[in-house]
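Bumping with the actual sequence this time:
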Amino acid sequence: MFWLVVLLLVSAGIPIKGVGTNATSRPDFVNIGAAMAFNSTIGKVAKIAIEAAIKDVNSNPSVLGGTKLKVKILDTKRSGFVGIMDALEFMDSEAVAIIGPQSSVTAHVVSHVANQLQVPLLSYSATDPTLSPLQFPFFVRTSQNDLYQMAAIAEIVNYYEWREVIAIYTDDDHGRNGIAILGDKLTKKRCKISYKAPLSPAATREEITDLLVKVALTEFRILVVHISADWGILVFNVARYLGMMGPGYVWIATQWLSTVLDTNSPLSAETMDDIQGVLTLRMYTPDTEFKRKLVSRWSNLTSNTTGYGPIGLSAYGLYAYDTVWLLANAINAFFNHGGSIFFSNISTLTPKHGGGKLHLDYLSTFTAGNLLLQSILQVNMTGVTGAFKFTPDRNLINPAYEVINIIGTGYRRIGYWSNCSGISVVSPDTLHSKPPNPSHSNQRLYSVIWPGQTIEKPRGWVFPNNGRYLKIGVPNRVSYRQIISLVQGTELFTGYCFDVFTAALNLLPYVVPYKLVPFGDGHNNPSHTELLRLITAGEFDAAVGDIAIITNRTRMVDFTQPYVESGLVVVAPVRRLNSDALAFLRPFTPMMWGVTAVSFLAVGAAVWILEHRLNNDFRGPPNRQVVTILWFSFSTWFFSHRESVISILGRLALIVWLFVVFIINSSYTASLTSILTVQHLSSPIKGIQSLMSSNEPIGYQQASFARNYLIEELGIHESRLIPLKSPEEFNQALKDGPKRGGVAAVVDERAYVELFLSTRCEFSIVGQEFTKNGWGFAFPRDSPLAVDLSTAILKLSENGDLQRIHDKWLMRIACSSQGAELEVDRLPFKSFRALFVMCGLACLLALAIYFTKIACQFSRHYSGEVKPSGRGSRSAQLMTFLSFVDEKEEEVQHRSKRRHLEGASNRTEEHGSSFRE
């Protein structure tokens, strides 16, 4: 595109050449160019601001050290082609930089020229975020990037909890790219653009009317307007004519509208009526001393302008003024770094055969353009817009916007947006001086007066104004008709789900036109998953019924808040357990009884061993001692043992054993009490685990998600699953059982099972509910009606209406056995294993200490009497040891004392005999 323009200009006779000198000192003046549309909303303000800034720079010799800025300002006449030609004309006048272009569209083309000729472009109004420094290194944006403006709009949309917006934009590079960025920012907030409405760059009233009529027929009412400031007001005039500026609508305009307000204020009363309640953004500039001085001078600066009426100072004017000062500071730094102004021909563009009619050899490059560009990017100054400095990605630091609500004859600022804190009612200057705090309490906006003079936040959508009813699919059930059913011969539905749906709709603040359409052939229960698939295909707008919310379905549609809790349970035949003569044995398992009996004997034997040498109660003939062991052991069950325990080790073992007995006794008593006083039901099926471990057939309700769950999640083979259509088939299959072609159990959702069991006492739920889900109404993805109905269902739950509807349809009089409990599993040994281990360790420890003590005593008293000298001697020693153990402790001590005295007497006699000799 660039070379095409060059060829056109050269062939038209416009000379393109560069002439300069490599001066070692600062020149008297430096040429710069500026291009804008003099009669545009932005251009007429920028022209005055640039001229004022040039005058201020040239009047201050300390800025450029005596060098003057010589600016050539050209009128682009709102034409992109003229803007391109103006930019090329500046190249012929040895301009070292160009202030402009004003339009983002023109900037895309002229930036190619600037790249080739190395002349910096400084644009205060080309805010298109796709003007990347990677592609256009010589393009420098000296105002805020639309990237931040779109982030601010997305933040506002998210703040008011809207989810979808309509984008009205100019169909050019600036409009399309800005809306693309808006879509990205909305996506990060889990929002989206639902409808894009492009307008031509020179849209007529008829084109705008046609477009807005299409917008009005959609369901969404949040409209973002990103168009030209020169004719944007016309959009609101047409919208008001079409009745689109009333209650329910939300209009958010980008900063073009605030520019119109600032530049052309005061607007006519009719124009202000057109934009009542609109939200718009304005680039935030702090109230600095430089800004106040320029504002006070503005009326004098604009007093000589004619033909435009009063001209106000907009944010673009402030940035245009700072752009000149930025360039002046950069040129000063350029000279300080030894830069010189010199232009050289581009040899690579010289025709191969010399000369030629196009004269491409006249094109020249600013040889020090890169140095000037770096000087521009390194400027750090304070201007009328505040701190003026570039970030590494070449955007201005601290981007911020004011959020404005147009009210009456003016507007009201309702808050700010900045990249450090998001929306806030605190000025960005204050927030920039503090660490980022996303959870700050000031992250809010002040109240808004919306279109239609209402203060209530619009919900953001309505039903389309095209007379179409919502087509809602309803499962045409053949069983459990209390849930939902079609009245024969009519198009009416009744049942629990239908009543919940209508009650929720009655709580909505708007009317929902709908038509219920039965889904199914009336002979078989329809597949809910297939019904939801038709929503994604667009055949239905929603689905109402007993639709379980499960994982794979949530990937297809959006569900409302569950209005009933449900989950899969197992139903099986049960039999009543009556108390019999052996009911007292039922609390413990056989193994538990066996271990308990052995423990009684073991502990009795241990205590007998520990007490035998000390306690006369544990001595006597062998038959008496056996009876003592048995009596003592089993009497501890009732804590009624008569024998006293006197040894420390015996007491230790007994205390631990009595603790174990206490726990076992309490558990036995509680379990036996339950068995004898509460009616119990027994079933060979204990729950889903016992079904999984068996090979018996399992029933499920036809078209239920239970089938896929049993196969895919639990790994049950498909051949074991038998579909059942109705409660009658459930009943017959369970009665027949696996041996007669029936099923061992049925797996179904609790809501259905409760209805089924209300009149069938011979069946019951066994085991625990092994899934958790609920029923909800289904809508297409991101449907706002799903959110509103969820809120309504929560209100029904809170005010008790949901429970009353449940009791009306699903509450049935249960049969007498429903109060019975399923047989509780017997108390197993593993539940008491730790107690028995603890008791065993205590007994073993006591016995170990006891036998160690006995062995020490034996070694002291009999070490000299029995000496090992073969197998007979070892047997004699063992018998002696057993005899020693059987002796009473008092006798051992008495004999030990007597031997001690005899030994002492013998030693005395031997000593006397020796003395006589």
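The tokens above came from a reply further down the thread. The longest strand covers residues 410-418.
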